[in-house]
Amino acid sequence: MFKVGDFVVYGSNGVCRITEVGPIDCPGVDQTKIYYTMTPCYIRDSSIFTPVDNERVVIRKVMSEDEAKDFLEQLDNIKAMPVEEEKKRELLYKQALLTCEPAIIVSLIKTIYGRMQERLSEGKKVTSSDAKYFHIAEDSLYGELAISLGMKKDEVGPYVHERMYKVAV
After folding, report:
1. Residue 166 buriedness (CB in 10 A; 0-12 / 13-18 / 19+)
2. What are phi and psi of 149, to 5 degrees?
């Protein structure tokens, strides 16, 4: 069970801070049920309530600083994911994001990045689907790493790119 003040990754909402643990004061809600009240770190003026026993949405603790540094050292070892059926590409992207697992998200980023580079080299445009999921994946990863490393979210992108693609940004 998480405690007040913990940073967690909560599904597609990204990084949230636990602000309360206990019943919620809302008409019609079972007062014996325990909830997490969370504030998303990158969505203004928002609160999320979820039962502590919720099994439908991934909720996990944010990486520690040491875990984040170790993770960044391993970026080279994470490979792009194979896309076996072009028609199922978007489903693969969605499923990868739903895991909320940093290594899977990096694999997704590498997959989409490679596809975007390939399309651009062929004189084609980047698809809106690729652009959308690339942005969502980067946003998710960078949000967690920013909290873990004590950085601003907009500083994380160049920091990660430098390590992931071995180029200065």
Report:
1. exposed
2. -95, 0
48 sits in which H/E element? strand 48-51
Give 145's contacts (C-beta < 8 A, 6+ positions apart): 63, 68, 72, 151, 156, 159, 160
Q: Which helix (H) or strand (E) holds 36?
A: strand 35-40
Farthest-apart Cα atoms in the chain, separation: 60
| Tokens coding 102 | 């940093």
Identify the three-state secondary structure at position 7: strand
Residues of the chain with confidence (pLDDT) below 70:
165-169
Distance CA 24, CA 34 (A): 8
pLDDT (0 to 100) of residue 169: 40
Q: What is the pLDDT of residues 79-108, one digit of tens each?
A: 999 988 889 999 999 999 999 999 999 999
pTM of structure: 0.89
Q: Dihedral (C-alpha) 3, 32, 24, 11: value to the nearest 10 degrees?
A: 60
Which backbone phi and psi does 49 adopt, to 5 degrees? -120, 130
